[in-house]
Amino acid sequence: xxxxTSVCANYLPKAMVLAESLKKHNPNSExxxxxxxxxxxxxxxxxxYFDYVVLSKDIGIRDFDNFxxxxxxxxxSTAVKGDLFEYLLNNFKxxxxxxxxxxxxMVYSSFSELDSIxxxxxxxLTPHTYFPEAGEEFNNGIFLECNxxxxxxxxxxFLGIRRGEESSKFITWWKNRLNLLCYDxxxxxxxxxxxxxxxxPALFNVYILKEPGYNLAYWNLSKRNIxxxxxxxxxxxxxxxxxxxxxxxxSGFNNTAIATYAPNVNELIHEINKQYxxxxxxxxxxxxxxxxxxxxxxxxxxxxxxxxRIIYRNSEVLQQLYTHPFGQLNGELGEYLEGxxxxxxNNPEADKWSIIDNYINEVCLLDKEWKAxxxxxxxxxxxxxxxxEKKCIIWGASNGGKIMKKVxxxxxxxxxxxxxxxxxxxxxxxxxxxxKPGQLKELSFDYAFIATSPGKADAxxxxxxxxxxxxxxxxxxx
Length: 478
Known about the structure:
Strands 3-2-1-4-7-6-10 form a seven-stranded mixed beta sheet, with helices on both faces. A six-stranded mixed beta sheet has the order 17-18-16-15-19-20, with helices on both faces. Strands 11-12-13 form a three-stranded antiparallel beta sheet, with no helix packed on it. It is of the alpha/beta class. Helices cover 41% and strands 16% of the residues.
């Protein structure tokens, strides 16, 4: 059985505790570390319990610079997990069973039960809890249930798969979702890799492992009684304790939560915490826990502001135009982008954007998130269109066309409107002639703005057939 984890350098001491404890109780297992860094730490290469260490950039992630730049450190270390499973399936052809464990886990006994379960099932998950919490009023237990609703029913600190058709379909689906949307944006229904798995039991044949010894953590302590049996071994609800998940360790939340859910300091979970702390201290002799994330810096050494990452992840314009963001989005351009992100923080163009926002509210209802995204994208387009007088067409003689014209009037001093294109309308619109798509060749224009949802597909098809490239030659407002 192959076990794996994904870490950045600062979590290597935790991964070392995990690997040593795993090998102690499962000596025939192999352990693979996916390191989300630019280079492999010497301590990781030499650590005797790591069988393989592979860099995230070497596991087959498409457009890696784009991928890694879009993520914060926590998002990145979880976003690689789908690709990691695919890498293992492709590179360990003689193995059929693969298990992911979060680095902040310590193993206490054999995974023999899981081994048997994987003989009959291709995908195995553990829920955060599988007993309803007591009480009808809002209390600590119901707070936990609410948290699971927001962040996921199943804890992705563990995932087991056996090679097969169903697990292959599952990993491909999960990998694709993580490549696209593995963000900590709970307000948008996303919580890194974990929230996606709420869909897995409905989409695939999944075995839900409801064993008290698996994935013991503060969120299920109220339903799991820890004891010592046979003089030395830990048990949970009279079943062998297989692994404990010390989630929230560095922030101190783990200790805070345990104090809440196990207030008696004589309970064994407090002793287990002390033992884990001692193991971590022993493994951190190289002070790796203080390591800086190598992907948190531009090529010139400047730290990447979080706002730049958020702009980049949300902007197809930036991703298309700047394919090496680590070397391109710093300096004056970075400052300009931060200004777009923080448009109200003494930005000289704040008043102009206020005019646009108010105008949009008058013309049609569009949410704040859409306006914020378009503000950034249209601001970036100033870099493309600015400085040289350009003739532009607006495709769509309706509300979208009105908004686009207003944006050009307010922001783009060097842009002249050559007219509107509309498949169904004739005459004039906003003081300019309306042309049919077939008349495009008669018009002289440098750039096209598509400002229609119903006609977007036709517009893009026509422009592409005439050699126009997205963002470089045209932009879709909707």
